[in-house]
């Protein structure tokens, strides 16, 4: 029996508009790239 992954409902991404924050944004969007979002 396969385990069904849970849907992510919210991602909180605080930012200070730095280069590291930009990379965090790209990482966060990558997490959701192939998932059904609500």
TrEMBL record:
<protein>
    <recommendedName>
        <fullName>UspA domain-containing protein</fullName>
    </recommendedName>
</protein>
<dbReference type="InterPro" id="IPR014729">
    <property type="entry name" value="Rossmann-like_a/b/a_fold"/>
</dbReference>
């Amino acid at each position: 029996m396969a385990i069904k992954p849970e849907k992510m409902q919210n991602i909180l991404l605080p930012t200070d508009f730095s280069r590291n924050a930009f990379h965090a944004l790209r990482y966060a969007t990558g997490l959701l790239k192939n998932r059904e979002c609500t």
